[in-house]
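[recover] target loaded
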């Protein structure tokens, strides 16, 4: 039986994600909000492992959020879905992925520390997603707190549009409201009147009529008059409200709840996410209607896979109403599934509900076809309807996996596919050349946590080692090759003779096979066999065991025998003729070059560029960003990067960030060429 469900409409829904750097106090703040609104009886403690959102054994052991968790509460007739997110930089992909489910990103900043890497990254990402943003400065009464200095830093880094809605007073023990009911209390810095005036000035800029009333006629404006331009300012990023709180003591919590429910946008007031309907040239961008009477459309922004209860898909409703018992389609699949149960989440706890309206966040379970970024809908007319995908940060750290116990290969494969289904910032690949299964993530900690979970939840133990570098081979000049394959075994023999030429192609052109045989010297039915033999050498390599690329092979002559010629003979002849030509074409080894972009505080630029130059990197330039940040661009051999994340952390004290993507292949230095050849053929001189 469904639990008692409070009825609300879309206008009374708020969806908010708490994001920010580790240690800012997001989880503690969420506990305080849940307790203050009566959603839980008393707040849990991170250090005791008793919080609602950090409910996994791993999180309780590490005493940090490692994954996102959806919670909810009611306040003043408004239903608030609130998502707690991890703050370690290595888990920023998990935080980014859930932002598709909310209208507001609330960036929590530690008043003792100030603006940190993850806060910068997620503020930028939220702006790109056109989300409304607000900033919560937490721990205003802690030892070493610097509320005024942190507010100044926020305005320097994120812009002058960051304006306080309240101000700390009495050393952070209390907070003075500067918006709804301007307080008589004297703040620790600035003034209530000045803060209120700054907000009103910022908001009325977007309403010409209101600006005339306010500036030219000198009349006061009411909160009701400010509501619409306030929402417009949030949507355009023209205003980023700042709220001071102490999650530990509760200072500012009531004001924060009022800001959430009275100022932050409902789904009807925010920037609607864009969906794409159709494919190719006929594709068009449309926005969800948020009409409860329209056909149902929702977006899956998170997958949980539990070893015992199966797969759960957490989704955001964008239009229409979904009810328990409805038939729902997944993307382009033609077969619907029945919504047997519809759940609302409070951390790990689920409560069954009968329906969800536009703007709601709910979950369904035990549907194996659900996946991250899936669109759920009720109409076949929408079978080519999808949300603009969230661009995940590229995985920059990889490990090759090998099972400890023989026979666990199937268990490893199953575990990896479940773990990557949950975490869109993980990437799984198989290197056929090296016979390696490689798991890639956003850092060493990210992968360590995943491997811990693999062992504890799925009982799979693995050994890890650095993945092999994906070298390639190519040729530097044209050359000809020839081979006659002749085999007589007493019965029907084998005969095939091939003449071919190899030519170098430009980098990145791959492989071309050209047939220029005339006069039937090699019958046309055997030409594919010649190509098959050539491709065998392409994949196996000729001088160092790596695939050959950027080569054109031209077969121009040969001989056949009317009785003894067979496909197998021309495969062998093509393989040997190609190997013969490669030997004469001055083959070389190529290495992958990555394009690296490093963002760092300006005072570390010399350290970064010096290190990159020392590992054979080519610096392409740098750009000055806001907040004394510099972006350095360079091309660096992948083999030299190693665990660059650890190196960068050491060079910048954890303040640097980087992205890395494959760019091109280039020739390895002579000493590396010699070493790779020796490893492939250690007895060759």
């Amino acid at each position: 039986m469904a639990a008692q469900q409070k009825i609300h409409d879309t206008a009374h829904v708020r969806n908010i994600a708490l994001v920010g750097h580790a240690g800012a106090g997001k989880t503690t703040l969420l506990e305080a909000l849940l307790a203050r609104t009566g959603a839980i009886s008393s707040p849990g403690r991170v250090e005791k492992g008793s919080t609602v959102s950090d409910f996994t054994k791993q999180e309780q052991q590490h005493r940090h959020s490692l994954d996102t968790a959806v919670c909810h509460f009611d306040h003043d007739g408004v239903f608030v879905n609130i998502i707690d997110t991890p703050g370690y930089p290595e888990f920023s992909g998990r935080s980014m992925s859930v932002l598709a489910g909310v209208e507001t990103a609330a960036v929590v900043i530690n008043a003792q520390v100030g603006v940190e890497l993850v806060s910068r990254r997620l503020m930028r990402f939220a702006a790109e997603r056109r989300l409304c943003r607000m900033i919560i400065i937490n721990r205003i009464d802690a030892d070493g707190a610097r509320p005024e200095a942190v507010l100044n830093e926020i305005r320097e880094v994120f812009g002058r549009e960051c304006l306080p809605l309240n101000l700390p007073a009495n050393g952070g023990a209390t907070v003075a409201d500067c918006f709804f009911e301007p307080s008589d209390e004297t703040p620790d810095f600035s003034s209530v009147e000045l803060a209120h005036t700054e907000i009103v000035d910022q908001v009325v800029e977007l309403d010409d009529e209101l600006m005339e009333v306010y500036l030219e006629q000198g009349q006061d404006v009411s909160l009701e008059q400010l509501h619409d331009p306030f929402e417009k300012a949030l949507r355009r990023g023209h205003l980023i409200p700042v709220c001071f709180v102490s999650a530990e003591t509760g200072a500012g919590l009531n004001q924060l709840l009022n800001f959430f429910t009275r100022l932050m946008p409902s789904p009807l007031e925010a920037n609607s996410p864009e969906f794409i309907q159709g494919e190719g040239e006929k594709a068009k961008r449309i926005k969800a209607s948020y009409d409860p009477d329209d056909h149902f459309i929702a977006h899956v922004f998170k997958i949980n896979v539990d070893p015992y209860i199966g797969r759960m898909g957490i989704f955001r409703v964008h239009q229409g109403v979904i009810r328990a018992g409805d038939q729902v389609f997944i993307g382009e699949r033609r077969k619907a599934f029945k919504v047997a149960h519809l759940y609302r989440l409070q951390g790990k706890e689920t409560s069954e509900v009968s329906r969800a309206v536009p703007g709601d966040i709910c979950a369904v379970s035990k549907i194996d076809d659900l996946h991250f970024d899936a669109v759920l809908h009720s109409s076949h007319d929408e079978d080519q309807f999808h949300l603009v995908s969230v661009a995940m940060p590229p995985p920059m750290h990889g490990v090759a996996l090998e099972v400890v116990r023989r026979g666990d290969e199937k268990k490893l494969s199953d575990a990896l596919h479940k773990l990557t289904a949950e975490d869109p910032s993980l990437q799984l690949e198989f290197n056929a050349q090296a016979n390696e299964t490689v798991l890639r993530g956003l850092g060493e900690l990210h992968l360590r946590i995943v491997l811990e979970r693999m062992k504890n939840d799925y009982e799979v133990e693995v050994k890890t080692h650095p993945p092999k570098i994906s070298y390639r081979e190519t040729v530097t000049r044209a050359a000809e090759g020839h081979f006659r394959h002749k085999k007589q075994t007493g019965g029907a023999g084998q005969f095939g003779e091939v003449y071919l030429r190899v030519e170098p192609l430009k980098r990145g052109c791959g492989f071309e096979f050209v047939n220029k045989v005339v006069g039937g010297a090699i019958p046309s039915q055997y030409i594919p066999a010649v190509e098959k033999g050539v491709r065998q050498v392409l994949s196996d390599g000729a001088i160092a065991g790596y695939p050959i690329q950027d080569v054109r092979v031209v077969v121009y002559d040969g001989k056949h025998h009317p009785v003894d010629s067979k496909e197998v003979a021309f495969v062998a002849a093509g393989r040997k003729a190609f190997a013969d030509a490669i030997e004469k074409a001055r083959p070389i080894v190529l290495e992958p070059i990555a394009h690296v972009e490093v963002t760092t505080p300006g005072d570390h630029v010399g350290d970064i560029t010096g290190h990159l130059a020392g590992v054979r990197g080519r610096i392409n330039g740098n750009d000055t960003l806001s907040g004394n940040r510099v972006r350095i661009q360079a091309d660096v051999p992948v083999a030299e990067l190693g665990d660059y994340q650890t190196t960068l952390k050491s060079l910048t004290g954890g303040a640097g960030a980087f992205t890395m993507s494959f760019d091109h292949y280039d020739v390895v230095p002579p000493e590396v060429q010699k070493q790779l050849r020796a490893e492939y053929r250690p007895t060759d001189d």
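[recover] notes: The CA atoms of residues 168 and 679 lie 66 Å apart.
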